[in-house]
Structure prediction request, 225 residues.
Amino acid sequence: NAGVTQTPKFQVLKTGQSMTLQCAQDMNHEYMSWYRQDPGMGLRLIHYSVGAGITDQGEVPNGYNVSRSTTEDFPLRLLSAAPSQTSVYFCASRPSGITDTQYFGPGTRLTVL
Amino acid sequence: GDSVTQMEGPVTLSEEAFLTINCTYTATGYPSLFWYVQYPGEGLQLLLKATKADDKGSNKGFEATYRKETTSFHLEKGSVQVSDSAVYFCALSISNTGKLIFGQGTTLQVKP
Prediction:
């Protein structure tokens, strides 16, 4: 199993550009989440999904969209990038059973100029 | 709302020293508690967890006990190594939504 994969690893955008961060998992996990990591602030939840076709907002959803058309994929879209979205983005997944352990991808480092 | 508070870092220790990283939480339900570790340039990995009061999670010489009475989940290790240098995150999960609430992270640097 590849686990949770994210692409790209690094990205530089100009203000106002749009892009999609890709996330995929091959563990058949129902739950998937997107977090952003900023210095001194830990990880904050952007959006999450409890299954295909079901998504919900987390703590910091503004400026981001998600969809979940398949169990495997959970892309994160930045509609109009802003410098405040400069961050490291992590995707995570976990199974739907009683264990709450989340598995994280390697992250995408995004810089918005 | 639900939250996690960790001790401020960075923490700098000499090899073989005793480590404690404090973590306290606020939650309305009955959370599961976690410690994740992030090595330089990598994503987060689960270090240990505890799912109910008085449970002790342990892994790689690290331990943490779920203390409901003090709402704490402090991370300890008896003898740290240089390879333990990383950022440590305390986190809680209180439902089956898959949501985790993280503390701000504590950077540990271990010197030879």
Notes: The interface with chain A takes residues 4, 32, 34, 36, 42-46, 49, 51, 89, 93, 96-105 of chain B (CB under 8 Å). The two ends of chain B are 41 Å apart (CA to CA).
